[in-house]
Structure formats: structure tokens, C-alpha cells
């Protein structure tokens, strides 16, 4: 499968997840994460578009809301799992320089300790 398509759908899902969490937990860090994920999604839209973007966004939005309602430990688990997967994907499939390097750095800041 095309790496740009996977990145596009991954960022659509990450945007939905972040928005869902931010909708429940009105914390600045979740707002910043959502804004970063939207920027990343828009970056990959330059290379590829797909009809699955919105369904993935809304599905992960619901997952984000449910996760946020389950509490901080659930948020930490889901976010860290998603971000580590995203980092692995970018490092394996893209040359980490330029815009991709900025995306990787943003993803590193989304981890919750």
C-alpha cells in the first residue's frame, strides 16, 4: 500500500483521536496535539486524497471520546501506543528530513508520561 495513503489515513485518525480527547478533557496540551495532527493531515493531503479520510477521522473521534471518559490511564495508554506506531512508521518509510523531520518532532512531543 502507498506510504502516503497510510500516512494520510493515520493522520486523519490521529486528528480524530486528539479531537475526541480534547472534546472531553479541555486541556491545552490536547488542543495543541489536535492542531499539530491537523497540520500533519493537511501536509499529506498535498500528496494524496482518499474517501476514507472522514470515516477514519470520525471513528477515531469516537474512540478518543470513549478513551477520555475512561480516564487518564486510558488516555496515556492509547496516545502513547498511537504515537509510537506513528514514529516507527515515519522512520521506516520516509527520509526523516525537512517537513517529515518536523512531523516526527511534533509526534515525539505528544507522548504522555
Overview of this protein structure:
It is a single chain. With 113 residues, this protein is mainly alpha-helical. The chain is 81% helix and 0% strand. It contains five helices and no strands. α1 (3-24) packs antiparallel against α2 (28-45), α1 (3-24) runs parallel beside α3 (53-70) and α1 packs antiparallel against α4 (72-93). It is globular and about 35 Å long.
Q: What does the secondary structure layout of this molecule look like, with pairings?
A:
Elements: H1 3-24, H2 28-45, H3 53-70, H4 72-93, H5 99-109
Helix pairs in contact: 1-2, 1-3, 1-4, 3-4, 4-5
Give a concise summary.
This protein is mainly α and 113 residues long.
Secondary-structure element series: HHHHH
Structural class category: mainly alpha
Rg estimate, integer Å? 13 Å
How much helix, percentage-wise, in residues? Answer: over 70%
Distance between the termini: 33 Å
Main β sheet profile: none
Count of individual helical segments: 5
Query: Averaged pLDDT, please?
Result: 93
Total number of strands: 0
- Regions with pLDDT < 50 over 5+ consecutive residues? none
Percent of residues in β-strands: under 5%
Sum up the overall morphology in one term: globular
Keywords: Membrane, Transmembrane, Transmembrane helix
InterPro entries: Ferritin-like_SF
Amino acid at each position: 500500500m502507498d506510504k502516503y495513503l497510510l500516512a494520510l489515513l493515520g493522520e486523519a485518525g490521529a486528528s480524530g483521536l486528539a479531537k475526541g480527547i480534547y472534546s472531553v478533557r479541555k486541556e491545552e496540551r490536547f488542543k495543541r496535539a489536535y492542531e499539530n495532527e491537523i497540520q500533519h493531515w493537511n501536509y499529506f493531503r498535498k500528496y494524496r486524497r482518499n474517501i476514507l479520510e472522514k470515516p477514519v477521522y470520525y471513528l477515531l473521534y469516537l474512540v478518543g471520546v470513549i478513551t477520555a471518559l475512561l480516564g487518564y490511564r486510558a488516555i496515556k495508554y492509547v496516545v502513547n501506543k498511537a504515537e509510537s506506531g506513528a514514529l516507527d512508521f515515519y522512520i521506516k518509510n520516509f527520509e526523516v528530513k525537512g517537513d517529515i523531520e518536523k512531523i516526527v518532532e511534533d509526534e515525539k512531543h505528544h507522548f504522555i508520561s
